[in-house]
Write a structure and sequence with these properties.
By secondary structure, the chain is of the alpha+beta class. Helices cover 25% and strands 31% of the residues. Strands 1-16-17-18-14-13 form a six-stranded antiparallel sheet, with no helix packed on it. Strands 4-3-11-10-9 form a five-stranded antiparallel sheet, with helices on both faces. Strands 2-15-12 form a three-stranded antiparallel sheet. The protein starts with 5 loop residues before the first strand and ends with a helix.
Length: 399
């Protein structure tokens, strides 16, 4: 990582009940070396081709089996489709109440579907239900066309977003995961995009539903039952996405939350849906039985206030942009940690809200176990010459 001029502020911290494994901010990308001690030689997913288990907040890998093996992801592809939909909602490009018109092409999709007819309109909210619960291939294409104009343009967005997330094992060829040559991902990459999707906490309003209806007040009501049975039968489960094709076999990216801890478990290539669900449940059981998540910082918590050279405002607050937690093994004793706060030495206007100003390093035994970005809480414009002149005069005469 390129080193910036920094001011080092080393603070010792005794953290009660923390045995220290990993810490990170909720929306940070998992560090490649944040692999935790696994369950001895036991294989939590013996029948799956590949599997990954991560802590959502820290991104720490708790279990991995062939994590980077490129495989067909089937309908787990729709995690990226849903991510781009949620991001479009956040940006105001679309609204949940917007009507989405179904093209002939979208209506022609085979496999899992909500049986959209050419010209039929549904709201974005209804389309999301159709994708999240029923794994609707037709709804996925309809939303892709609504957002990007064509499915191809949307696929380009999917691949660009995958690249931004560091999904190096992934190439998307469609929006829904129907079998096509070259359409691949890995358990590791699926965990990455699942973690990114869960930044949009409202998504679990859809993925966590067990059943619902579309066209409820029409003469053709359509009963939706979640293809992910764990949302009904596993305590705390509220997502995310199943997948199946003859080539891919049975796949699942699942998430569950208990207390402060949310985990993501990914299984690819299981021989049956029953075994897939059992192995995902075993992985999540392992995480909840072995680890705890301890919050360290609140969202937007102020870490320091620093001067801004030549700014309209003379200072800016530096904050942790998202919740910051530490993952620890249950039953471990308190240990000594150090927080090292690294900031840019000289901050000059203009400063943009959210721009990275530095980072907090959490260290154990001299080794960095995780980092979290520090950002500007607000924007600071550059001051005009007259304001700078008055400021200099006040300082000169002690005013």
């Amino acid at each position: 990582m390129k080193k910036l001029p920094i001011v080092l502020l080393c603070l010792s911290l005794m953290i009660p009940s923390l045995g220290g494994l990993a810490s990170a901010q909720e929306k940070a990308k998992p560090a490649a070396d944040q692999k935790q001690e696994q369950q001895g030689d036991a294989d939590l997913a013996p029948n799956a081709v590949s599997a990954v288990l991560i802590d959502r907040d820290t991104g720490a890998i708790l279990y991995e089996k062939n994590g980077h093996k490129a495989l067909p992801p089937a309908s787990i592809t729709k995690v990226m489709t849903m991510l781009l939909i949620m991001e479009a909602l956040d940006k105001g490009e679309i609204k949940l109440t917007d009507k989405v018109r179904t093209s002939e092409y979208a209506a022609s999709m085979g496999g899992s579907q909500i049986f959209l007819e050419p010209g039929e309109e549904m709201s974005v909210d209804e389309m999301l239900k159709g994708i999240a619960l029923a794994s609707g291939n037709d709804a996925s294409v309809a939303m892709a066309e609504h957002i990007a104009g064509t499915e191809k343009a949307f696929i380009d967005k999917m691949n660009a977003r995958a690249k931004q997330l560091g999904m190096d094992d992934t190439t998307f060829m469609n929006t829904n995961g129907l079998p096509v040559s070259g359409h691949v991902s890995s358990a590791h990459d699926i965990a990455l995009m699942s973690r990114e999707l869960l930044k949009h906490e409202s998504i679990t309003k859809y993925t966590g539903l067990y059943q619902d209806y579309l066209r409820k007040n029409s003469n053709k009501p359509f009963w939706l039952v979640n293809t992910n049975r764990l949302v009904r039968f596993y305590a705390g489960a509220d997502g995310l996405k199943t997948g199946y094709t003859t080539e891919a076999k049975y796949c699942l990216t699942a998430t569950a939350k208990r207390g402060n801890m949310r985990v993501i478990a990914v299984v690819m290539g299981a021989p049956s849906s029953k075994i897939r669900n059992q192995e995902v449940a075993s992985m999540m059981d392992y995480a909840f039985n072995q680890y705890d998540s301890q919050p360290l910082y609140k969202e937007n918590q102020i870490i320091k206030t620093v001067p801004v050279e030549k700014g309209k405002q003379e200072t800016v607050d530096i904050v942790v942009p998202y919740r910051f937690s530490m993952l620890v093994k249950k039953g471990e004793k308190a240990e000594q940690y150090q927080k090292e706060i690294n900031l840019k030495a000289d901050l000059k206007a203009p400063v943009t809200k959210g721009v990275k100003i530095g980072e907090v390093l959490i260290k154990k035994d001299g080794k960095t176990v995780s980092t979290v970005d520090l950002v500007a809480a607000n924007s600071v414009e550059k001051a005009g010459w007259w304001e700078l002149f008055k400021r200099s005069t006040r300082k000169m005469f002690g005013g």
